[in-house]
Amino acid sequence: MNPKLVQLLGLAMRARKVITGEGLVVRAIQTKQAKLVLLSADASGNTAKKVTDKCLFYSIPCYSLLNRYELGAAIGKDARVTLAITDSRLAESIQHLLTPNS
Question: Which domains, and CATH codes, for the chain?
Answer without folding.
Answer: 3-98 (3.30.1330.30)
